[in-house]
Amino acid sequence: xxxxxxxxxxxxxxxxxxxxxxxxxxxxxxxxxxxxxxxxxxxxxxxxxxxxxxxxxxxxxxxxxxxxxxxxxxxxxxxxxxxxxxxxxxxxxxxxxxxxxxxxxxxxxxxxxxxxxxxxxxxxxxxxxxxxxxxxxxxxxxxxxxxxxxxxxxxxxxxxxxxxxxxxxxxxxxxxxxxxxxxxxxxxxxxxxxxxxxxxxxxxxxxxxxxxxxxxxxxxxxxxxxxxxxxxxxxxxxxxxxxxxxxxxxxxxxxxxxxxxxxxxxxxxxxxxxxxxxxxxxxxxxxxxxxxxxxxxxxxxxxxxxxxxxxxxxxxxxxxxxxxxxxxxxxxxxxxxxxxxxxxxxxxxxxxxxxxxxxxxxxxxxxxxxxxxxxxxxxxxxxxxxxxxxxxxxxxxxxxxxxxxxxxxxxxxxxxxxxxxxxxxxxxxxxxxxxxxxxxxxxxxxxxxxxxxxxxxxxx
Length: 460
Ligand SMILES: Nc1ncnc2c1ncn2[C@@H]1O[C@H](COP(=O)(O)OP(=O)(O)O)[C@@H](O)[C@H]1O
Ligand SMILES: [Mg+2]
Known about the structure:
The chain is of the alpha/beta class. The chain folds into four domains: 2-129, Response regulator (Rossmann fold), CATH 3.40.50; 139-319, Rossmann fold, CATH 3.40.50.300; 323-396, Helicase, Ruva Protein, domain 3, CATH 1.10.8.60; 404-456, Homeodomain-like (Arc Repressor Mutant, subunit A). It has 21 helices and 16 strands. The strands form five sheets. It has a five-stranded parallel beta sheet, sandwiched between helices. A five-stranded parallel beta sheet has the order 7-10-13-6-14. Magnesium ion binds at residues 185-186, 250.
């Protein structure tokens, strides 16, 4: 087994998870004493150890532990974890017999490469070793451990994502949630928050695609009275609102370069300064971010900062597209019929079995959100309260809908604002909530679209 030694639970939890996913058995220890006991008792094949176990950050304790391990088990390979910028310490460790070192924050690839090399594993060390790690948990297993309120689905792909998120939920590890639009990234963020010790405190969502760069500081960090012309009172920013709780940095991939720099600074310093204030506020906030972009690609093309990326994704959880969830589509369809009953006041709404099968044959680029919209639309246009294939076919058929609604209202019946709001709603329905396409079709920037969504109170 691989022994991971670190006093930071977020680190040991994420490393064990990564190792397990790659087919390695692992154990953790929080102190040098515990670590030595493990090494004497168990069959340890490799050690990955931190350099600091108390408030001291000199690395002395790490070197001491390394020396103790070397005395007890001279052949046992040791990989050191050191902080950014302490290359001297790492070199000292290598001289004292460590096999390798990695710097924090690391990439999963670096860790697995170092592990594979230290263990002399031939070929790609990242290749999964099949069922070696035993039976994968089912939804029922997870339901015993976690509060799954608000999460519908039992498919293997979804359960795997919840499993990973659940394991790190109780730590303060930063989590990056990836997945196409409408796959439930906010739902998963809520799951993490609900299953963390922070659940009594707020979960604050910030849509970074909608925050213009001129308002960024004030929105996120707040301002004091008089900081700028319109600042008549103090205003708490989103980080202050999230104090003690969790912040969801949604659409993190939309953040512009200056926003990325500011975000990196806050996450590094764990502190921020409200606009116009000279007092630095320390922060205690768990950070979850979400994006439907491929950030690795954005890093390669220079759109996204690599150092910020590593701050955000101690753990990455990928949500599968609806098409990869098998029978979840039927479960979700029934679930949305129920919620539609409640929200639209159709207590007798039912769903034909053949309609469920038909839904299973459709393409769902807008994923779960699109399914929800289609069911709501079908319920609104259906002739009876029993939803059939015909109702869904009509709900899907946007061409005829467009012809029928191709009109300009008579003068005096609508204000410009009403026309604007109607057009936005129509475009959202047409593009199944894909806001990039909505913005494009309306000739708006994403920021301009978000400001209108807020203004008209349109849920997004
Ligand atoms: N697993 C799920 N169970 C129930 N509802 C879900 C699930 N996943 C997504 N939804 C619903 O689908 C819609 C889109 O989810 P959201 O989390 O906003 O997606 P994303 O942030 O990935 O675009 C919301 O109405 C949400 O409640
Ligand atoms: Mg979202």
